[in-house]
Amino acid sequence: MQITPGKLSGLKAVSTETGTIGAAAMDQRGSLKKALAKESGGEVSDAMMEEFKGAVTEVLTPYASAVLLDPQSGIGPSKKRSDNAGLLLAYEESGYDNTRPGRLPDLLPQWSVRRLKEAGANCVKVLLYYTPHDTAVVNEEKHVFVERIGDECRANDIPFFLEFVAYDANGGDEKGLEFAKIKPQVVSASMAEFTKDRYSVDVMKVEVPVNMKFVAGAASYVGEQAYTKAEALDHFRAAAAVATTPFIYLSAGVSNAEFTESLELAAESGVTWAGVLCGRATWKDGIPVYGKDGLEAFRRWLQDQGVENIGNVNERLKAASPWFASYGVTSADALAAV
C-alpha cells in the first residue's frame, strides 16, 4: 500500500502527532440556522452564522487535530483555527434532494475539489445518506456519485473523507427501537460498500453501529432493549471487520455523555478505529446561550463547558489507533509513494 504525496500530507495535517484524528465538526448549515433562529427568536444572518462558527473554531481547535467547516460560511472562521489544527471542507449541499425519493445528494454548485483545495482544505468531506435497503436505482446513483468525487479527489491529490448516515428507506423513525434493531446491519453494509477501492475513499466517517439508548445496562439506556451489551460489542466488531480503509466515528447529534459512552464501548470491543469527527456533542448545548445572551456569553460557555466536552472526547481517543495502522504499518511515512 502506498499513498500519493498530497494525500499523505493532507492526512498528516488533520491528525495528531500519534496519527489519530480528533477533529471538531462545524459544517452544519440549515439545521444550525434553524436552531439558532429558534433560540434567538429572530432571523439568523450569514454574519451570525460566521460569528458562531468562528467562536467554536477559535476556542475549541487548540484541543483538536482539525476542524471541519463548510465553504459557504466557514472560510472566514477557518482563519481562526489554532496552528495545530488542519482543515477539512465540506463539498456537499446541506440536506438532500426532497423532490425525489432516496435522499439523493448534491454538491455545492460554485465549488469543486480544486477550489476547496485552493481555499486551504487539507481534506475534502462529503456526506451521503445511505442504506442498503433502498432501491437498486437509488443506490446505483449514489455509488456513481461517490465514484466521481473519488476520482476528483484523486486527480487533485487530496484526501477524501466520506461520511454516510443511515436512514429508514420506508420512512420510519431512525431514532426509534425498530430502526435500532437494523442499524448494525445498515452500518456494516455501508462500510463494506464504501471501503471498496473503486470509490477512492481515504477515511470513512461512520456512525457507531448501535443506538446507545437501546443497549441494556448502558448509562444512556431508556428502558427498551435492542441489544445486550455483549451483542453491542459484537456489532462494533462486525462493522470494523469489513473495513479495509481507516474509519472514524461521528457523533450524530447525540449528547456528549452518550457519545463518550459509545467510544468507551468501541474501546472495549477492541476494534481498530482511527478517531472522531465530533460536532454537536461538543457545542450544541451552547446554542441557547448564543441565541439568548450573545457572542461573549457563548464564548465563555465554550471556554468552560465546550472545552470540558472536547476534553471528554479526547480522553476516550486514547484508545484509538493511528489511521495508518489500518494498513499494517507503524508510521505514516512508511506509506509514502515513491
Q: What order do the helices and strands come in, and which of them pair?
A:
Elements: H1 5-13, E1 21-25, H2 30-40, H3 46-60, E2 66-69, H4 75-78, E3 86-90, H5 113-118, E4 123-129, H6 136-155, E5 160-165, H7 177-194, E6 203-206, H8 229-241, E7 247-250, H9 256-269, E8 275-278, H10 280-283, H11 287-293, H12 295-316
Parallel strand pairs: 1-2, 1-8, 2-3, 3-4, 4-5, 5-6, 6-7, 7-8
Helix pairs in contact: 2-11, 3-12, 7-8, 8-9, 9-12, 11-12
Radius of gyration: 19 Å
Order of helices and strands: HEHHEHEHEHEHEHEHEHHH
What structural category do the secondary elements indicate? alpha/beta
Q: What is the percent of helical residues?
A: 40-55%
Examine the coordinates and then state which fold CATH places here, giving the name of the CATH topology. TIM Barrel
Mean pLDDT: 96
Q: Please identify, by name, the CATH architecture.
A: Alpha-Beta Barrel
Number of domains: 1
Q: Kindly, what is the distance between the CA atoms of the first and last residues, rounded to a whole number of angstroms?
A: 11 Å
Largest sheet report: 8 strands, parallel, barrel
Structure summary, number of beta strands: 8
Q: What's the overall geometry?
A: globular
Low-pLDDT residue intervals, each spanning 5 or more residues: none
List the total number of helices: 12
